[in-house]
Amino acid sequence: MDERISLTRGLSTRRRAYDITMRALLFASAIIICALLIFLIGYIVRRGIGGLSWEFLTSEESVIRDVKGILPALINTLYIIVATLIFILPLGVGSAIYLTEYASNRRLVSAIEFATETLAGMPSIIFALVGVIVFCETLSLGYTLIAGAFSLVMMTLPTIIRTTQESLKTVPQSYREGSLALGSGKWHMIRTVVLPSSIDGIVTGCILAIGRIVGESAVLMFTAGMSMSLQNYNEFADIFESSGATLTVALYVYAKERADFEGAFAVAVVLLIVAFAINISAKLAGKKLKKS
Amino acid sequence: MTENKPQTLKNLAARLLRALGAAVEQIMRAVFLLCGLVAIGFVLVISVYLIISGIPAIREIGLADFLLGTNWDPANKTAPAYGILPMILTSVYGTAGAIVIGVPLGFLMAVFLSKVAPRRAAAVIREVVDLLAGIPSVVYGLVGMMVLVPGIRELFGLPAGDSLLAAVIVLAVMILPSIISVSETALNAVPREYEEASLALGATELETYFRVSAPAAKSGIAAAVVLGVGRAIGEAMAILMVAGNVANMPSLLTSVKFLTTAIAGEMGYAGDLHRQALFSIGLVLFLFIMLINAALNLFLKRNKEGN
After folding, report:
1. What 3-state class would DSSP assign to A185?
2. CB-based contacts of A90: which residues, under 8 Å, 6+ apart?
């Protein structure tokens, strides 16, 4: 540090002023952003922690018994995650495999990559509109969890494609050549050599996709409904008939339609914890699986 | 003869197996090709459905009246009006405002993380910024609603604090993570030799960062800006909660309606022409986004060639 100060000492006043102003700006912006982060997280936790209880997480809302609970929202979120992953996992991984292992036509590859980029940059409200016309109305699925999941399939597909593709690229070419030289067919080579060595990217992609699904609200509000009560879930297949709010939609309903801010902040804390868990597990998955 | 028969059988079995293997190879190839085409299919479905359901209302209202009309009043039974100019301008101003606040802040933060901060501190800050990126937009909306809106109301002595200003601040915070991470990646990719040469010629560290590293990373930083524009113009739920949702011509302290919040706020109850008009707004938004994506691709390509 002392060395730096002595370096600026020989400078003209103008250059020294530039140096000092720029340094001050850098530190100021760093401090502003860090303070903002701490404030955001602290504020949400402080306002929400009071409303958070075991009962809140595990019961259904009831006016008669004066109980507030988000169990239905938790279940809806979970079902939508599972239903979406069932589709995007094979589609996304398959698409990445085609791009890195099979495709020989340059034009087709760049068309697919352009389409993926376009989907990734599309705002969620567009997926909401298209989801409503295509799934709820044209395919007459109605306003159900499955219609919401299908709309999210369009939205989250690029996440899986991209992470899988990245990790397929890091599989050494010599693995493929070794496998092919031993007489295995291409599909056999992919199944036994390429896919196992790119599992880290696939898992990371799934975690990131789950993060986007949990955080999404606009799409689900219009395709999967806003009901806050427990539907008649006996089994997973009920997603074809029931509609309901996920966590984010529940937050919106609490805040905007009921002005129940304690409930809204309690849901926000839950969402914050989920976001934190997803961040950490995405990083761990990338590191751990790569090592093994 | 007795020896030959099992031999042919074996041959036959081997040939059959090989044919089966080849068939499986062909089938899997086709399956993977189909998976690859799904993304293109989705983009086509989105484009086609948006155009089909967006055109009728524009045709009925008239393109000029729709795009340049300054009055949005679809609920009016006697003389409904479907002009979306206020929303287009609000979206443009709101995005511009978010960029004006978010980009300098994010860029300076990226320089700080990439060049100045001690490695450990930078790693911790990066984690927290990543967390910021993972927080759902409704949570930003909620905090904005409870902190910004009353703050603005009191600061400016307004009857209500729901305003363009509140939306701009929320958007600026929301685009920060992507601006920081994309520009930091670009700054990290600047060859170390450039900086060393500049330092060796007697420039100070800060002169080097801002006059050598930043210009060398400029296409990456441009990509960060365009990405921020895309994020900001497409955001709906967070600003739906703080903007007030009245289709005024935009000014900083009035309640406004964005292209996105018009759709998000009115889809629930709109019927007939009103509903069709919302799809037309979706089409307009889609065209905006396609333009921004094209710009983004251009910058990213230039970035790749530059490196």
Report:
1. coil
2. B35
CB distance B35–A91 less than 8 Å? yes
Tokens representing residue B168 in the block: 């701009």
Q: Identify the CATH assignment for A56-291 out of 3.40.50.1000, 1.10.3720.10, 3.40.50.300, 3.40.50.970.
A: 1.10.3720.10
Domain for residue B247, yes or no?
yes
Residues of A in contact with B56 (CB under 8 A): none
B169 and B46 assigned to the same domain: no
* pLDDT tens track for B157-200: 888 889 999 999 999 999 999 999 999 999 999 999 999 999 99
Domain count, chain B: 2
Which residue of A25, A91, A130 is the best one to mutate when testing the B interface, meaning the one whose CB has the most B CBs within 10 A?
A130
ipTM field: 0.88
Co-location of B223 and B167 in the same domain:
yes
The answer to whether residues B100 and B29 belong to one domain is no
Q: Which residues contact A195 (CB under 8 A, 6 or more apart)?
A: A93, A97, A202
Would residue B75 count as lying in a domain? no
Question: pLDDT tens digits, chain A, 292 residues: what are they?
Answer: 444 555 556 778 888 888 889 999 999 999 999 999 999 999 999 999 888 888 888 878 777 777 788 888 898 899 899 999 999 999 999 999 999 988 888 899 999 999 998 999 899 999 999 999 998 888 888 888 889 999 999 999 999 999 999 889 888 889 888 888 888 888 888 888 888 888 888 999 999 999 999 999 999 998 888 877 776 565 666 767 778 888 999 999 988 888 888 889 999 999 999 999 998 998 888 777 665 5
Kindly determine whether residue A115 and residue B39, on different chains, have CB atoms separated by under 8 Å: yes
Q: Domain segments of chain A: what residues? A: 2-51, 56-291
CATH of the domain at B214: 1.10.3720.10
Classify residue A165 as exposed, middle or buried by CB count within 10 Å of its CB (0-12, 13-18, 19+): buried
Contacts of B26 (CB under 8 A, 6+ apart): none
CB contact under 8 A, B286 and A121: no
Q: Give the minimum alpha-carbon distance from A278 to chain B in angstroms, rounded to a whole number.
A: 8
pLDDT in tens, B104-122: 999 999 999 998 889 998 9
Mutate to test the interface with A, among B27, B138, B291, B292 (most CBs of A within 10 A): B138
Flag whether B67 is in a domain.
Answer: no
Distance from CA of B57 to the nearest CA of A (A): 15
Q: What is the pLDDT of residues B16-70, one digit of tens each?
A: 888 888 888 889 999 999 999 999 999 999 999 999 999 999 998 889 888 998 8
Q: Are B39 and A111 in contact (CB under 8 A)?
A: no
- Structural domain of residue B38, as residue ranges? 4-61
Size of interface A-B (CB pairs under 8 A): 239
Q: Please say whether the beta carbons of A204 and A163 come within 8 A.
A: yes
Same domain, B46 and B182: no
**B 67-126 → A contacts, CB under 8 A:** 104-105, 108-109, 111-112, 116-117, 125
Q: Are A124 and B236 in contact (CB under 8 A)?
A: yes
For residue B115, give the chain A residue with the closest CA.
A26
* Contact indicator for B33, A195 with CB cutoff of 8 Å: no
List CB contacts (< 8 A) between B238 and chain A: none
Give B185→chain A minimum CA distance, Å. 16
